[in-house]
C-alpha cells in the first residue's frame, strides 16, 4: 500500500491486552487518494478478512485540514 499514490505511511499495532486486536493507522496526503485506495483490490481483500474475525472491523477516519510544527 505504501506504493499507492498519496500514501504517506501505514503503521500496524497489536493490542497489549488482547493479541487478537489490531489497529492499522494509515496516513494519506489527500481524501481523493483514500477514495482510490478504498476501491483497490488490496483494500477489498482486507475488508473481506473481516468475515473471519470475532468482531466486525471498524473504520474511523480522522481528517486534519491544517497542521503546524511547533519547536519546543
Structure notes:
This protein is of the alpha+beta class. It has one domain (1-72): Alpha-Beta Plaits (2-Layer Sandwich). Helix content is 22%, strand content 21%. It has 2 helices and 2 strands; from the N terminus they run ββαα. The chain has helices spanning 31-38, 41-48; strands at 7-14, 22-28. Strands 1-2 form a two-stranded antiparallel sheet. The chain is globular and about 40 Å long. The relative contact order is 0.16.
List the keywords.
single chain; 72 residues; alpha+beta; Alpha-Beta Plaits; two-stranded antiparallel ribbon; 2 helices; 2 strands; 22% helix
Radius of gyration: 14 Å
CATH topology: Alpha-Beta Plaits
Residue-averaged pLDDT, rounded? 89
List SSEs in N-to-C order.
EEHH
Helix content: 10-25%
Q: Which strand order does the major sheet show?
A: 1-2
Structure annotation, total helices: 2
Main sheet summary: 2 strands, antiparallel
| Shape-level CATH architecture | 2-Layer Sandwich
The rough form would be described as: globular
Range of strand content: 15-25%
Number of strands: 2
Q: CATH top level?
A: Alpha Beta
Given as residue ranges, the uncertain stretches (5+ residues, pLDDT < 50) are none
Terminal residue distance: 33 Å
Number of domains: 1
Amino acid at each position: 500500500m505504501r506504493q499507492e499514490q498519496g500514501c504517506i505511511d501505514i503503521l500496524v499495532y497489536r493490542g497489549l491486552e488482547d493479541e487478537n486486536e489490531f489497529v492499522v493507522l494509515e496516513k494519506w496526503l489527500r481524501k481523493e487518494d483514500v477514495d482510490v485506495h478504498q476501491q483497490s483490490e488490496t483494500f477489498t481483500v482486507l475488508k473481506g478478512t473481516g468475515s473471519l474475525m470475532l468482531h466486525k472491523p471498524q473504520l474511523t477516519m480522522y481528517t486534519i485540514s491544517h497542521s503546524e510544527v511547533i519547536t519546543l
